[in-house]
Structures are given as structure tokens and as C-alpha cells.
Known about the structure:
By secondary structure, the protein is an alpha/beta fold. The protein is 24% helix and 30% strand. Residues 7-13, 29-32, 37-39, 52-56, 128-129, 158-160, 163, 167, 186, 188, 232, 276, 279-280, 301-302, 307-309, 311-312 line the site of ligand 1.
Amino acid sequence: xxxxxxxxxxxxxxxxxxxxxxxxxxxxxxxxxxxxxxxxxxxxxxxxxxxxxxxxxxxxxxxxxxxxxxxxxxxxxxxxxxxxxxxxxxxxxxxxxxxxxxxxxxxxxxxxxxxxxxxxxxxxxxxxxxxxxxxxxxxxxxxxxxxxxxxxxxxxxxxxxxxxxxxxxxxxxxxxxxxxxxxxxxxxxxxxxxxxxxxxxxxxxxxxxxxxxxxxxxxxxxxxxxxxxxxxxxxxxxxxxxxxxxxxxxxxxxxxxxxxxxxxxxxxxxxxxxxxxxxxxxxxxxxxxxxxxxxxxxxxxxxxxxxxxxxxxxxxxxxxxxxxxxx
Length: 327
Ligand SMILES: Cc1cc2nc3c(=O)[nH]c(=O)nc-3n(C[C@H](O)[C@H](O)[C@H](O)COP(=O)(O)OP(=O)(O)OC[C@H]3O[C@@H](n4cnc5c(N)ncnc54)[C@H](O)[C@@H]3O)c2cc1C
């Protein structure tokens, strides 16, 4: 059996690894202490936050088919939020997500989907791949301590574009295309309150501000009942302030939140901030994955298509169909 290394245990890496099960010996390497990547959940008792992806929608048959058993098992559920659009501090429209296409979330937190997918996979956590180089006919990978992670026939990068560009060999046939994909930053502000706020909605797109999204994260299905707000900065503001002090960013976003919500916000009982250096990417044209058939290297991820959960799945799924005929 061919040996395949998958770098990154986000949705794309896990999807690819599952697709290749039984066809190749697949090893997944993940730098964090858990799987899921940007489908992330932060617990801070008694609060809990999805501080990366907020929800996901379904447009393709392949993704729909993948989700069906997850929904049947209760690992994924609809989030029928009351949704509003806020512009310049005013609510300009509103509707219930009950009445339209599903907005799905993993249960009891966004990271639960990855947890379900890791079953039966060989995943090395807290293992950052720092080098990929030729060793005879195969590729050798090194970790953060320059220790060898073994030899592989194929290496598939499933990490954000900028990180893939820095890690993949310069000889990778698609290196210029990967270098051309620019992912945008985002700050997530997490607020926990001792009492529920009565704002009248659970999810909001925000315009005309440095905040793009506000949600009552605890209103999602299966969450702990302590009231939380999850706030995302705009990508533009994050990129302009990506090296700013966390305290200053948190204070600014809280002030912006109070202004945008036009609500007498009580002091939060819990405040935390997360910086996503590579959060999102706008819709891309062209390939859904990048492959170098001669060198047995490839790169996948949402950034090949668009910064959406479904895009991460599709990039990996389509890559796997191609690889199945090559390994
Ligand atoms: C703030 C925010 C909000 C979002 N909101 C939504 C939303 O509402 N709806 C939606 O559909 N999508 C949303 N997204 C996008 C969605 O989260 C992504 O499209 C999807 O999770 C990407 O999956 P992926 O597997 O391609 O990459 P990732 O999830 O980034 O996975 C990459 C993995 O690789 C690991 N890694 C990186 N470098 C290395 C290395 N050298 N060695 C080993 N491991 C490494 C990382 O730790 C990570 O686990 C949001 C993202 C963010 C950040």
C-alpha cells in the first residue's frame, strides 16, 4: 500500500483521510492539540463559543450526502435563528432562518464534526510539519523538533494557502497559484454574561462598522445555556490591525459592539479574544485542488474555492477522487 501524509486535521484534511481509508496507509499530522481547524469550539466554563466557523450551508449533492448520517446521528443540526441585518447601528431587515434553507451547526459545538470524523484515523496531534524533502523516491517530513515523521509516497497539504506556500517545496508545480491565494484575517471576540440579554435576535450581519457578525452563540442547538455573544471583526479591520495588542483590539471591538447594537450592554462576566491570521478568502475561480502528479504532491483546502466549510469538504472530496486513480 502507498503511504500518504496529510498535513492538517481541519475538515479538508479529515475528509481526504477518510476517503482514502483502505486504499492507502494514511497518516494525518496536526499542529494543534485537537482536530477541526477553523471549525473550532472554545470552552471556558460555564461558557462555550464557536469562535471560528459560525454555521454552514449546503449547495452540493456531495456535501449533502456527507451530512445526512451526521444529521441522523444528531451530530449536526439546524440553527433556526432569528436573523437581522444591522447597518449603521439600525436594524434594516430581519427574518427567521426557520423559513428558508438550513443553517447547520455541529452539536454540541462546531468542533464536534471533526471529532466524529477522526474515528479510525491515524492522527498525530501537536505535530507541526516544518519540512518536506526528497529522500530517494519518497518524501520525508520533519516535525517542530526536526524529528522525522517518516517517508511517504504522496504528501497532501490541507492547511491555509500562505502556510502551504511556505511549507511545500518550491518545485511544486502549482506553487505560484498557491502563492497567489491571499487569505484574510479576522478577530473573534467572545463574551459571556451572567444574565441573558433581551436583544430580540440571535444572529446578525453587520454593515457600516468594523464588526461584520454578532451572534448569540448559546442559542445554537445543544449548547450550555449560559448566555454568550460571539463577535467577528471585518476582515479588513483585522488585516489592518493584525499585529495590534490583544487588549487594545478587545477594548475597541467591545466599544464598536455597544455602538452597533445600540443596546445598554452590561459588563461581560467573561471576555476572550482570538486572532485568526488566515480566516477567510473570497470566491476563487479555477481548480478546486492543486496537484503535481509527477512529484506526488498536492494542496487542498477551502481557499481553493471560497472561505466556506462546504468548500473545504469539496476540495478534499474532489482531490480524493483523483488520487484514488493514482495510488
Ligand atoms: C472567524 C471565522 C469565521 C468563519 N465563518 C464561517 C461560516 O460562518 N460559515 C462557513 O461555511 N465557513 C466559515 N469559516 C470558514 C471555515 O471555517 C473554513 O472554510 C473551514 O473550516 C476550512 O477548513 P480547512 O480544513 O480547509 O482548513 P483549516 O480548518 O484551517 O484546517 C487546517 C489545519 O491545519 C493545521 N495546520 C496548519 N499548519 C500546519 C502544519 N505546518 N503542520 C500540521 N498542521 C498544520 C491547523 O492547525 C488546522 O487544524 C469561518 C472561518 C473563520 C476563521
